[in-house]
Specification:
Helix content: 55-70%
Radius of gyration: 28 Å
Order of helices and strands: EEEHHHHHEEHHHHHHH
Strand content: 5-15%
Number of helices: 12
Distance between the termini: 36 Å
Shape: elongated
Strand order of the largest sheet: 3-5-4
Number of strands: 5
């Protein structure tokens, strides 16, 4: 089981894996009385739902064993554990994990049904919190994509500098100065100031000016890096490149700050 996150449902902390399997063990704490997950598995309606879910999602489901289990559902003598259920039917909707952080986990579809067994109120809040978690993950994914895009374009940009601006005889210190100079071409074009100017204005902040850029600025910066690499290959002088990049930054930022998709990635802060 991969690393999990948590949601809070009616004051209970519920673990959710990266595959969006939800801990039934954690959920069970909210049910009044002394109950076990095996009690839920005894119910015929539960088994019918699990069978339908496996039919849709699991081509390797063992229908012969499932028919045998279903025929015994409801009998006083019938009882089956999660491990037995998985071993006999090859089910994938429910998983049992041993160890300190183990327990029983179920796909979100199944966990919602288990939530109804606890209470209708619990199910409603479980769905609400689970959806909120997914929205947060989507926002983080969008941010990570933009950061990775910036890193990739930065490699294109620095390679263009290395191939076109840096003579092979320069020392490492001289090369770093060229890189810094070209980075500031982009900084001035987009932010209106060099990295040093920003540090002088923000002595209390860690990192650099780009660490505090919003999503719109990161998207624009990635575009400027690619464009500057192209200008370098065309042998345009630095002052001309700066003028063209600044005009491009102004145009792109006007469009990006009005794009609702960018605003959603920024969480409404862009």
């Amino acid at each position: 089981m991969s690393k999990s996150k948590t949601i809070i449902v009616l004051n209970e902390e519920i673990r959710v894996t990266q595959e969006h399997y939800i801990s039934l063990t954690d959920m069970l704490r909210s049910k009044d009385g002394d109950f076990f997950i095996s009690d839920w598995l005894r119910n015929r309606n539960t088994l019918e739902y699990l069978g339908i879910w496996e039919r849709v999602h699991n081509p390797n489901f063992n229908w012969g064993e499932f028919a045998t289990i279903k025929s015994q559902a409801g009998l006083n003598s019938y009882k089956i554990s999660v491990k037995e259920w998985v071993a006999k039917t090859q089910a994938i909707g429910i998983q049992a994990k041993a160890g300190r952080y183990g327990g029983t986990y179920a796909h979100a579809d199944i966990a919602f049904e288990f939530g109804m067994w606890i209470s209708a109120e619990f199910k409603i809040y479980l769905i609400k919190e689970f959806q909120r978690l997914k929205e947060q993950e989507q926002q983080q994914l969008g941010w990570d994509i933009k950061r990775q895009l910036t890193k990739i374009n930065y490699r294109i940009h620095t390679d263009a500098i290395k191939e076109n601006l840096i003579p092979p005889q320069l020392s490492k210190q001289q090369i770093s100065l060229v890189y810094a100079s070209e980075a500031d071409v982009l900084n001035v074009a987009l932010f209106g100031k060099t990295a040093k100017q920003w540090r002088d204005e923000n002595p209390d902040k860690d990192g650099n000016i780009r660490d505090y850029a919003n999503v719109s600025q990161l998207v624009c910066l990635a575009n400027l890096e690619t464009l500057n690499a192209h200008f370098i290959q065309q042998a345009l002088p630095q002052n001309e490149r700066l003028r063209l990049l600044n005009n491009t930054a102004i145009q792109q930022m006007r469009l990006l700050t009005q794009d609702s998709r960018i605003n959603n990635l920024e969480g409404g802060k862009a």
